[in-house]
Write a structure and sequence with these properties.
Blueprint lengths: L1 E4 L1 H14 L5 E7 L2 E8 L16 H14 L2 E10 L7 H6 L5 E8 L2 E10 L6 E8 L1
Parallel strand pairs: 1-7, 4-5
Antiparallel strand pairs: 2-3, 2-4, 5-6, 6-7
């Protein structure tokens, strides 16, 4: 399984998560058939003390993303977020809050610079993730 995304959208993710550093930056992925066609960068709604390793979207954020996807004739494919100064593998917290069928791009940001992107999909039994290839181009 793979997730396709353009170079310009990857660069948009990088700009957003680098600007959020040292806190987590996050947003939604819109598209269809495993291809991301738009990103929605969002502010981190988590309380100040937890933003360095947690992100939160509001119910309004979800509703706006679903509405935008419908307007585009697309789907809400998943979420992108950053892991500042730590590996870009899902945490236990990420797993507990993950939604089935979503792709989760996690960008590692070291010292304020995005260094790598990996994408994950929650297993049906919710016990872990399968990594999916990120195809940029």
């Amino acid at each position: 399984m793979s997730l396709r995304i353009s170079q310009s959208l990857i660069e948009g993710i990088e700009r957003h998560v680098e600007a959020a550093y040292p806190e987590e930056g996050a947003g939604f992925l819109l598209g269809a058939d495993g291809a991301v066609t738009e990103i929605i960068p969002l502010p981190n709604a988590r309380e100040d003390a937890a933003r360095h390793n947690r992100f939160l979207f509001t119910p309004q954020d979800y509703m706006n993303a679903e509405t935008r996807a419908i307007d585009l004739g697309a789907d809400l494919l998943g979420v992108f977020h950053s892991h500042p100064d730590c590996p870009n593998v899902p945490s236990e917290y990420d797993r507990e809050w993950a939604q089935p069928f979503f792709s989760y791009i996690i960008t590692r940001v070291d010292g304020g610079k995005a260094v790598s992107h990996r994408s994950w999909r929650l297993k049906e039994n919710r016990e872990g993730y399968d990594e999916e290839e990120v195809v940029v181009g």
